[in-house]
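In response to the reviewer comment on reproducibility (Comment 2.3), we provide here a single inverse folding case reported in full, input and output, so that an independent group could reproduce the run without further information from us. The structure tokens appear first.
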């Protein structure tokens, strides 16, 4: 039973007591005292603990120390509980507005001195920028109030409770669970505590309570409409923008009139021009950075400064591997700079307002921001039922309105914020409509977004998550009457009158997503489609250690949670340790703002930016013969305006008679920016200028005789028809490999691709592969035969309890001293599912030294798959075996390099073997994977540290790989990139290390 004083944990009212109205988070010269730092802390298992600790004289000597800001579950080495990860599920019974008696409750205390001179302050405020989930505050034993709204700011008036001098005590009680938890069911870790700054503010008499500088931009002219909230005694108030010569004095609040500025540069995500401004009264000066821009919806277009915006965005959570949602400004700045380097131009602050400084950074570096309110009630979505959903229940109206009000008020000054979002996955209901109405009234300029308003009853843009490519295309197509999710035809028609965006798409869990280019292509064909936001930017792994001290990034279940959602929290474009995934490289290439088209001896350069021309870029070209640069230079490209194309002459390209000739063009930053050095590649393209060369014909052999003995063919040695050594080094294989360690998308059961017969609801591709035994193939040798210079084996490959089989014929031959292996892979009839891969595997035991590196000519440098090939370019690359694999949080398929021509395996930098891959008769080239673990070993490990010690390198040459898709939460692999069982030929020429090689 909660005690009388703890009954408020199940109160839907958002706050009680001396809470001040929401206002902007301002940079002011009024005195402020940070209360961050060491606090005293005690954790209790329930909320029903006596409040005696709040008394000024309470003895907290027996308590421990905790830093503020922090989450208590990430401090104290587990003594204070552990993080819990759930996606949709509530980690407590669904019994709104009640929460269990088991309700971890953290009591915090600290002393502070009231600085000299603060006694003159008209008011003293105590501000909390983020406390999860409900907290109550006392100063010097006086109860001040309580509040919820974890990622929102709360300011309490503590004027009458503070006293001059050193002897002040603030006590805060924080409950992990409260009624508010039902509104905060975001897909993330539950991380209680005071996790953002705590600040004491002296508010001067005649100070500026709040200011809102609403800006507009039209054709070189700027406009500022100011709203000043201050006591009449604060006036006159002066707005100054020195750089623009603005000095505007307002005598009274009603005197505050719009300011027109004759010549300004606009703010955009591409050219984030900011002007330093101050707003001052005699008592206080507030500093802002003003950006001029006008947001507007015209018909089905979303425009800023009159030009259509295309969001190449990311959903950004606050996530740090050691600090959780505690803001680390240096880390966040570097993360945003990384976004810029990867051509990201927009952020949706999923699913709550970030630390307020993040928005300063976004204004400065340049991002279109969809600022989302802290609201999600997803756990009420029992198969779309939403019974008891707070967003449609009058008991929660005040809480919902309080949340949007705190969201909009806090961040309203930011030019980067171009849309407000009511929240995420909260069903639909009257409280959401009320939130939209409040926002429209308060800020008529910026549109209101909320995906759950399928029918468009109260929002200004049409938004969906994880729509398939065909669905998105239908939404963008004029005259289409294809039904829209949850809409009657009339509602669908209404939605088609609005700008459309994908607030989430391309679920980036594990290896993937595929098909980014298909989504991108739509945006350029259908102007109603305004792009979207990848789910999501970062993995939320929490740095943990195994019993023996091995560090790893933990996900759901790693902290012994009763209810959890596993590694669904590891779905970012950046790994927990800040390393960009191959998927992010793909994104960068797909959305590059400059596009190139080769046209004979000319190059068309198209600028797809919002408004910036190309004068910040330099253009270069280079020619490579089999990956070696033979010529390079600069391209003269006069500035191309946004939306325009220019054609420039290309240099004469020296074409090699006996090597591949590739022409590469690049747009790079001409000068350093705040986020990248000069020379940073923004966009690139390649053209194949090779002369056609015939594929060497297959080698014919006759006169086969059975032979099971031991013998050699050039550098290859065999026993019983099986390879034992190559160039003196132990090697076995080829062995048919149809399995890949299932990716998170292979394990996915989302069923969102119409027309794909594999997308059986609730059955993943990986389940089908395991059912068919692709991970446990066995071999029966049918025949071994040889001639003087060739060896042939025929194997029947199949799995236990399965009649399905594949016949593999391998022919080794030597001609002019050169060894060739030809493998014919022939599926018998009856295979029904897609296959993960069609390849052969070689084992290379470490012996005298491990095969630990690869040099190759083919596609690189990153891994690539059939539906994720845009970041791959043709060239020569090299990598250590460890760097060939991406460090996905859960081991899975990784490392496949497509389009292989030549591969050199190395050991400690010394060449070991050379392989030349011949294309098949249709010109298709294989890919390769070099790894220290087999697909089967990878598939058995839940974390990287669970992989066994390895004494072998594994080389897989794949004739083909299945695509990636994004079925972990979204569409399956597009049929064109799905690998159906089919006959394939592999041809490899193999030579030993060149004795003359350095
Ligand atoms: C969608 C959520 O909005 C997002 O927070 C995240 O959970 C994502 O899924 C999956 O990682 S909701 C889903 C039911 C489409």
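Designed residues, in position order:
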């Amino acid at each position: 039973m909660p005690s009388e004083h703890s009954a408020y944990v199940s109160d839907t009212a958002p706050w009680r007591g001396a809470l001040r109205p929401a206002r902007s988070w301002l940079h002011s010269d009024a005195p402020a005292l940070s209360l961050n730092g060491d606090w005293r802390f005690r954790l209790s298992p329930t909320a029903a603990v006596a409040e005696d600790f709040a008394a000024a004289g309470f003895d907290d000597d027996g308590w421990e120390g905790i830093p503020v800001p922090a989450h208590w579950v990430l401090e104290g080495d587990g003594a204070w509980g552990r993080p819990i990860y759930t996606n949709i599920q509530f980690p407590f019974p669904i019994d709104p507005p009640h929460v269990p008696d088991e309700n971890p409750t953290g009591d915090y205390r600290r002393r502070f001195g009231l600085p000299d001179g603060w006694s003159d302050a008209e008011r003293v405020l105590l501000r909390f920028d983020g406390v999860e989930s409900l907290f109550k505050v006392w100063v010097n034993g006086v109860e001040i109030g309580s509040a919820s709204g974890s990622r929102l700011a709360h300011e309490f008036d503590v004027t009458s409770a503070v006293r001059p001098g050193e002897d002040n005590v603030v006590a805060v009680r924080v409950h992990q669970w409260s009624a508010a938890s039902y509104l905060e069911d975001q897909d993330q870790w539950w991380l209680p505590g005071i996790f953002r700054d705590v600040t004491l503010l002296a508010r001067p008499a005649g100070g500026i309570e709040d200011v809102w500088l609403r800006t507009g931009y039209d054709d070189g002219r700027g406009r500022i409409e100011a709203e000043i909230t201050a006591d009449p005694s604060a006036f006159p108030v002066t707005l100054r923008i020195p750089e623009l010569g603005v000095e505007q004095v307002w005598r009274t609040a009603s005197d505050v009139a719009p300011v027109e500025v004759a010549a300004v540069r606009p703010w955009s995500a591409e050219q984030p021009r900011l002007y330093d401004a101050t707003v001052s009264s005699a008592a206080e000066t507030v500093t802002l950075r003003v950006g001029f821009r006008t947001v507007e919806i015209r018909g089905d277009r979303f425009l800023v400064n009159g030009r259509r915006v295309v969001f190449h965005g990311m959903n950004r959570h606050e996530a740090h591997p050691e600090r959780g949602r505690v803001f680390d400004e240096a880390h966040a700045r570097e993360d945003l700079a990384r976004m810029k380097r990867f051509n990201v131009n927009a952020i949706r602050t999923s699913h709550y307002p970030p630390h307020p400084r993040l928005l300063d950074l976004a204004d400065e570096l340049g991002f279109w921001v969809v600022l989302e309110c802290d609201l999600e009630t997803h756990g009420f979505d029992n198969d779309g039922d939403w019974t008891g959903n707070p967003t449609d229940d009058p008991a929660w109206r005040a809480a919902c309105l309080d949340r949007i009000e705190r969201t909009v008020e806090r961040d309203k000054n930011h030019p980067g914020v171009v849309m407000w979002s009511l929240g995420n996955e909260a069903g639909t209901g009257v409280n959401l409509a009320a939130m939209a109405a409040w926002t429209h009234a308060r800020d008529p300029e910026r549109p209101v977004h909320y995906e759950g308003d399928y029918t468009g009853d109260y929002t200004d843009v049409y938004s969906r998550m994880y729509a398939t490519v065909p669905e998105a295309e239908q939404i963008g197509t004029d005259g289409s009457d294809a039904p829209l999710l949850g809409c009657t035809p009339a509602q669908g028609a209404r939605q088609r009158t609005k700008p459309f965006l994908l607030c989430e798409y391309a679920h980036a869990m594990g290896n993937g997503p595929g098909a980014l280019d298909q989504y991108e292509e739509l945006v350029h064909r259908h102007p109603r489609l305004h792009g979207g936001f990848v789910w999501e930017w970062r993995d939320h792994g929490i740095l943990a250690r195994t019993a023996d001290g091995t560090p790893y990034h933990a996900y759901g279940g790693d902290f012994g949670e009763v209810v959890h959602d596993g590694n669904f929290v590891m779905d970012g474009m950046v790994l927990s340790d800040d390393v960009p995934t191959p998927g992010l490289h793909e994104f960068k290439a797909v959305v590059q703002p400059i596009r190139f088209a080769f046209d004979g001896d000319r190059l068309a350069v198209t600028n797809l930016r919002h408004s910036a021309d190309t004068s910040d870029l330099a253009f270069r070209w280079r020619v490579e013969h089999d990956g070696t640069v033979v010529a390079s230079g600069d391209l003269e490209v006069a500035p191309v305006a946004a939306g325009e194309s220019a054609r420039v002459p290309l240099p004469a390209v020296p074409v090699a008679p006996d090597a591949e000739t590739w022409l590469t063009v690049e747009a790079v930053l001409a000068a350093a920016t705040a986020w990248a050095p000069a020379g940073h590649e923004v966009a690139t393209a390649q053209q194949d200028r090779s002369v056609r060369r015939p594929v060497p014909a297959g080698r014919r052999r006759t006169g086969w005789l059975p032979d099971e003995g031991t013998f050699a063919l050039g550098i290859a040695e065999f026993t019983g028809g099986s390879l034992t050594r190559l160039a003196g080094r132990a090697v076995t294989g080829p062995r048919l490999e149809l399995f890949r360690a299932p990716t998170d998308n292979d394990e996915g059961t989302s069923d969102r691709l119409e027309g794909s017969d594999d997308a059986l609801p609730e059955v993943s591709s990986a389940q089908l592969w395991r059912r068919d035994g692709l991970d446990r193939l066995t071999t029966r040798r049918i025949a071994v035969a040889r001639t003087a210079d060739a060896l042939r084996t025929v194997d029947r490959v199949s799995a236990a309890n399965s009649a399905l089989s594949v016949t593999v014929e391998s022919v080794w031959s030597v001609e002019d001293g050169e060894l060739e292996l030809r493998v014919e892979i022939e599926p018998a009839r009856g295979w029904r599912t897609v296959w993960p891969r069609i390849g052969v595997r070689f084992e290379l035991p470490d012996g005298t030294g491990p095969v630990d590196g690869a040099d190759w000519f083919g596609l690189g440098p990153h891994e690539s798959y059939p539906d994720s090939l845009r970041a791959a370019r043709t060239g020569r690359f090299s990598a250590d075996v460890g760097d060939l694999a991406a460090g996905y949080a859960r081991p899975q398929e990784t490392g496949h390099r497509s389009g292989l021509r030549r591969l050199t395996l190395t050991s400690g930098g010394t060449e070991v073997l050379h392989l030349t891959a011949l294309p098949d008769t249709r010109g298709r080239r294989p890919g390769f994977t070099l790894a220290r673990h087999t697909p089967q070993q990878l598939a058995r490990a839940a974390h990287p540290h669970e992989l066994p010690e390895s004494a072998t390198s594994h080389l897989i040459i794949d004739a083909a790989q299945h695509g990636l898709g994004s079925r972990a939460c979204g569409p399956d692999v597009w049929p064109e990139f799905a690998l159906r069982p089919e006959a394939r030929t592999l041809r490899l020429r193999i030579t030993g290390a060149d004795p003359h090689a350095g």
